Amino acid sequence: MPLYTDLADELADAIRRGALRPGERLPSVRQARASRQVSAATVFQAYDLLESRGLIESRPRSGFFVRAARASSAAEPQAAPASPEATEVSIGDLVMQVLGSTRDRDVVPLGSAFPSPRLFPLRELARCGARALRALDPDRLLEDLSAGNERLRHQIARRQALAGIAVDPDEIVITHGAMEALDLSLRLLTRPGDIVAVESPTFYAALQALERHGLRAVELPTDPRDGVDPDALARVLERHRVAACWLMPNFQNPLGSLMPEERKRALVAWLAQHGVPLIEDDVYGELHHGSRRPLPAKAFDTAGEVLHCTSFSKCLAPGYRVGWVAAGRHAPALRRLKTLTSLATAVPSQLAIAEYLAQGGFDRHLRGLRRQLAVQQAQMHAQVEALFPAGTRLARPQGGYFLWVELPEGGDSLALQAQAATLGISLAPGALFSASGADRRLRRGLRLNFGHAPNDARIAPALEALGRLCSPIRGTHRSGTRATAVESTTAVQTPR
């Protein structure tokens, strides 16, 4: 990366952490040049970049200053209480009904589970794949079955080590995306009728997996900022015989919560004490908005009981379907289950990603992707706050690409989803993320995807239309101004 980008990222992180406060003057160009041992041009470029992001401002004859953050009047959502009872899961029909339209490119993808594919280096990946295939030793095809390509597993272990996570390459099993990693882990650890502890709300695909395998869910109250409370988990473990936990400590879907490291440490220790394995879904860990990747729970695992599952689908290669499990002491059994289930993961996809990682361009791509998503998150947060009715609560995620919105009292996100669908707008209502599919506590919640904003001019008009639909008085926004009735326009089209 250019030096000015590194300098800008370091200063941006200092601003986010509060080390540089609003109104505080940045070092002069001369001071920064001397202290950093860089050219004046590098400092100017870094300051220009920070100014373009809205983090600092220049004042004539005075220098550069940290810009005051726009005050947000929207409160954050609070953790909803969860039922202490285990429940049968019934979510599949609702998921298919709500999400069936998200594949239609004419639909505004606010309910999509994926970011824009335009954010990823797909052409470079294709070139890497072609080079790797030309150099492929045919005999390696058989050697790489089951566990996955050895070169890729070593690249993954190397990246984990640099992030402070000790993972042996032999512990890693390559899978068809993160969903196969998670599903294999669940099948390995449970039997029909078992109880699995999950977050509330939680990722709907986790609930689909529990339903598919005849498992019961016990829900853990999850704070939109700090995630699951280990004390709540302790109470569940005292009440139920839990076969496994399925949790997302980093940038949880749908809330966007980030569990503090001390909570992760306590969580892993408590589970190990009770002999309960953790299936950790960490697909968004690389999409942090700060300067450092948050450690996963796996980093605190000393007993080999954390099955760390993730993939390249959300951060590098959508559609390539390359994920993996760092399965700890369960790796041999999981490798056998993988062999019996799907035998192997597609070799060309593995080779392309291994080649790309070896070239060293991944971190450069990630820095750009993280910056873009952070900008888009701030933009959508501001738009929703301005356009939705007073009393709307908004999460403040520090990573990922989902924004959790809680409508005011009386709001119904499932009804809003049905109305929005007639305008060609998708969204993910809160009912998708509860074990029963009809949890009244989540009735006012909805998840919006801000991973498409830079490439889709329909996003802003769609948010304005949603704001009108969910206003207590039709057409009245937070600002109190009167808006025209929702109409079909070129920006918000009725789906074909």
Automatic annotation (TrEMBL):
SMART domains: HTH_GNTR. InterPro entries: Aminotransferase_I/II_large, HTH_trans_reg/aminotransferase, PyrdxlP-dep_Trfase, PyrdxlP-dep_Trfase_major, PyrdxlP-dep_Trfase_small, Tscrpt_reg_HTH_GntR, WH-like_DNA-bd_sf, WH_DNA-bd_sf. Keywords: DNA-binding, Pyridoxal phosphate, Transcription, Transcription regulation. It holds the Pfam family GntR. Gene3D superfamilies: Aspartate Aminotransferase, domain 1, Type I PLP-dependent aspartate aminotransferase-like (Major domain), Winged helix-like DNA-binding domain superfamily/Winged helix DNA-binding domain. Residues 1-69 form the HTH gntR-type domain. Residues 486-496 have a biased composition (Polar residues). The keyword Nucleus does not apply. GO terms for molecular function: DNA binding. Residues 477-496 are annotated as: Disordered. In the C-terminal section; belongs to the class-I pyridoxal-phosphate-dependent aminotransferase family. This is DNA-binding transcriptional MocR family regulator. It comes from Sphaerotilus uruguayifluvii. The lineage of its organism: Bacteria, Pseudomonadati, Pseudomonadota, Betaproteobacteria, Burkholderiales.
